[in-house]
Amino acid sequence: MNNMVPIIKKELKSYFNSPIAYILVVTFLVFSSIWIFYLQTFFASNIASLRGYFSVIPIVFIIVMPALTMRSWAEERKMGTMEVLLTLPFRESTLVVGKFLAALTLLAIMIALTIPIPALLSQFGNFDWGEILGQYVGVLLLGAAGISVGLFVSSLMSNQISSFLISLFVLLALTLISQVNRVLALPPWAANAVNFVSLGHHFSNFQRGLIDTRDLLYYAIVSALFLYLNIKTLVFRKW
Amino acid sequence: MIEVSNLGKRYGSLEAVKGVNFTINPGEVVGLLGPNGAGKTTIMKILTCYMFPTYGTARINEWDIFDRSLEIKRLVGYLPENAPLYTDLNVLEYLGFMAESRSLKGSQKKERIERAVEECGLQSVVYRGIDTISKGYRQRTGLAQAILHNPEILILDEPTTGLDPNQIAEIRDLIKRLGKEKTVILSTHILQEVEATCGRVLILHEGKIVAKGTPEEINREMKGEVVLEVVLKAGSRPTGAKAIPGVRDLLHVSSPEANLHKLQLALLPESGAEEAVFDWAVAGGYKILAMIPKRLSLEELFFKLTREGSEK
Predict the structure, then answer these.
(1) Which of A150, A160, B88, B168 could form a cystine bridge with A17, CB 3.0-4.6 A?
(2) Across all residues in chain B, what is the average pLDDT?
(3) How far is B9 from chain A (nearest CA, A)?
């Protein structure tokens, strides 16, 4: 764990030394504010809840997570720094988890910057802070799953753009697959299966502020699975 | 102590390294010499545990590359080809990251970075972004990174590419100095580099070791062949060059202009054939414009070595 600190520091320095972190954070904040105040007409609807705000997060993350992770391995490969990184005395798992935690840190910073929205709005109504906590936990978990998918895709690519587009496609499919149930009348087992694998479906409870262990477990499993696949890619590459 | 036994690597259908064996003792400076695509980089990538060989194995200090890679990585300093660096960091941030990755902390980290910066002459660029420094500085930053943790074994892949002659001389001096207490393996396709820095040379061609020995031995072997280029002015193409005493073979004839002829003659060593060539030209009424003794170029050396290798 102690060993992971240099990796996290280096990744964060890379994020903040290049414009990407700032562009992402600002775009995210501007878009989500427009969404709640303008498109969702927060004040006109006169309800002291941020459900409308959080409903758009899975869609926004379909774009934000690939942008956050597209460089992580693809750029190392392209610049040849992969050779430097993989000949340093780190285990593959240390590198993968280090990169994951760095991206998660950036995500946490981004999400923390949205806190002024409920903090300011609390002047105008009686918010349920438990609900908001649940919503924030959900956003972090959804983000963690998105990051680990993005990192895995990036580890297969040597070009940021293809990494971005393919992660975007994978996340789009994983998030929106549950919408199939709105259009098609699938047999119940298939409908459940489709819901079970959907990143978006598992967010709906969090969106209402409910922390369900099944959803927690789902996001934990998705994150762990893709991190594991990422580690295996690095090991397999040696052959 | 580095022991490589029957090491081979295939990339798909291409066999880049074909069953290489060698041993390097502590404190040796060994050069891997070969043209591009000879397998030098692949061997280095395997020794630094960046990739596994397809067959065979290598051991460093009795540690096998397959199951003790972490220990080996701690022991080795590596400068990959073209010195890849993180372009979004500055030089100091980069060296700081490398030092921390090597578990150097606090005052020790500071001291080691200062020393590496000084040895590689990076003082003027420490706060510059790596994307803004010249190729020479990048190469030296890569070298600074490799020596940061005072490694027992240094593996340098083409350490002097992209440097100007002064910098090349400095880096060679540095390598020689480091070689006094460390094991150094460096790869190059420049013959003089090996002569200037290495105690022993392994010559690679198409994934195989075609010759090995000290630079002096390799040189002696090469001196068996002296090539003389003769430029003549004559009305018609000169004849009878092959029959000159001391000339082993006529390698090449060309006529760049109507009455200008270029001949490449392979001479037997110490036969005094140059005089015989002069006499032959006078007797034939040819005017000698130039007589240029040539060393074998690396390509010709490889051609010779591999041809002899397959004849044996």
Answers:
(1) B88
(2) 87
(3) 9
Residues B108 and B158 in one domain: yes
What's the pLDDT at B241? 81
Do the Cβ atoms of B122 and B130 come closer than 8 Å?
no
Chain B residue closest to A79 (CA)? B84
Q: Which of A95-104, B64-73, B145-154, B263-272 has the lowest mean pLDDT?
A: B263-272
Instruction: Tell whether A13 lies on the interface with B, counting CB pairs under 8 A.
Output: yes
| The predicted structure's pLDDT at residue A33 | 86
A86·B50 Cβ contact <8 A: yes
- Measured CA to CA, the distance from residue A205 to residue A198 in angstroms comes to 13
Is B18 within the bounds of a domain? yes
Question: Structural domain of residue B55, as residue ranges?
Answer: 2-221
CA proximity to A40, closest of A29, A54, A28: A54
Q: Which residues of B touch A3 (CB under 8 A)?
A: 103
Query: Which of A11, A14, A87, A235 has the most B C-beta neighbours within 10 Å, making it the best mutation to test the interface with B?
Result: A87
Q: pTM of the prediction?
A: 0.86
CA distances from B216 to B23, B85, B306 (A): 19, 36, 19
State yes or no: pLDDT of B216 exceeds 80. no
Tell me, what's the pLDDT at B312?
41
Determine whether B266 is exposed, middle or buried from the number of CB atoms within 10 Å of its CB (0-12, 13-18, 19+). Answer: middle
Choose from A47-56, A80-89, B154-163 the range with maximum mean pLDDT.
A80-89
Q: How far is A74 from chain B (nearest CA, A)?
A: 13
For B52, the closest of A6, A80, A238 (CB atoms) is A238
Number of independent structural domains in chain B: 2
- The single residue listed with the structure tokens 């002291």 is A48
B191 and B230 inside one domain: no
Residue at token pair 């819901």: A195
Query: Do residues B25 and B165 both lie within one domain?
Result: yes
Lowest mean pLDDT among A194-198, B41-45, B222-226, B271-275: B222-226
